[in-house]
Amino acid sequence: MIRGANIEFAGGGKAEQANQAVKGPGVDARSLPAWGIYARNVEQLTFEDVRLSLAKPDQRPVILADNVQRLTLDNLRYPRVRGVDEPFVTNNVGRITITDVKGRP
User: Fold this and answer.
1) Helix (H), strand (E), coil (C) string for 29-88
2) Residues 6+ apart with CB under 8 A from 32
3) What is the DSSP code (8-state) at residue 92?
4) Tens digit of pLDDT per residue, the chain (105 long)?
5) Running DSSP on this structure, what letter comes out for residue 27?
6) CA–CA dist 79, 71 (Å, integer)
7) CB contact at 8 A, 53 and 7
């Protein structure tokens, strides 16, 4: 669970990075297919009263959840980025609960 957090990301990602395959960690940093939260193979993930922000626009989704059994987003704020139609991408997510989630300009 992540609660009561303000997290800023560098941003600057491109749309094609959202579709790249994710490789296991190596010795060098690698980009991920989401600028905020990338979660894979998680039983339960909760964000409560969380603010995500960007230093510069990013064309990747805010959150990408893959194989997550329970995802809860409660009082989440994030910046809307022009050209990003789907801020949340889910693949094989069992149960999603969304309460008071808002993108802001």
Assistant:
1) CCCCCCCCEEEEEEEEEEEEEEEEEEEECCCCCCEEEEEEEEEEEEEEEEECCCCCCCCE
2) 17, 22, 38, 60, 64
3) S
4) 889 988 888 888 888 888 877 766 665 567 889 999 999 999 999 999 999 999 999 999 999 999 999 999 999 999 999 999 999 999 999 999 999 999 987
5) S
6) 20
7) yes
What phi and psi values does residue 46 have, to the nearest 5 degrees?
-130, 130
Coil, strand or helix: which one is 105?
Answer: coil
φ, ψ at 100 (rounded to 5°): 55, 60
Which two three-digit tokens encode residue 101?
């989630």
Report residue 37 as tokens.
């939260």
Residue 63 φ then ψ, to 5°: -130, 135
Residues in the chain: 105
Phi, psi of 98 (to 5 degrees): -120, 120
